[in-house]
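Q&A FORM
Asked by: J.P.
Topic: structure of MCRI2 protein

PROVIDED:
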Amino acid sequence: SPAPKLVFNRVNGKRPQVLPQQVSAPEECYTLAHEENVRFVYEAWQQVEQQLDGGRSGEGACGPVQYVEKNPNPGLKDFVPIDLEEWWAQQFLAKVKNCS
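REPLIED BY: S.T.
REPLY: Here is the structure written out as tokens.
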């Protein structure tokens, strides 16, 4: 199903600045095969996560094994993974701020 569209309400009844319409990119259409593939990968990953969580309590069980680096790279000792959702939110807000 298509993603919901964002709706912005006017602040203090002010009309938004009229900008010339730009040619928008066509909306993405997902085929049934695409949705089946996404569902398959999602469900398979959920099973792996459940098996990993369940396997921690029972030693010697067969199933997925989580990779853990034995000798971590010292160059990555201060590495902090990025919060991609937060980054996208900041990018979106910066674009909104620049347009107003």
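FOLLOW-UP: The mean pLDDT is 78.
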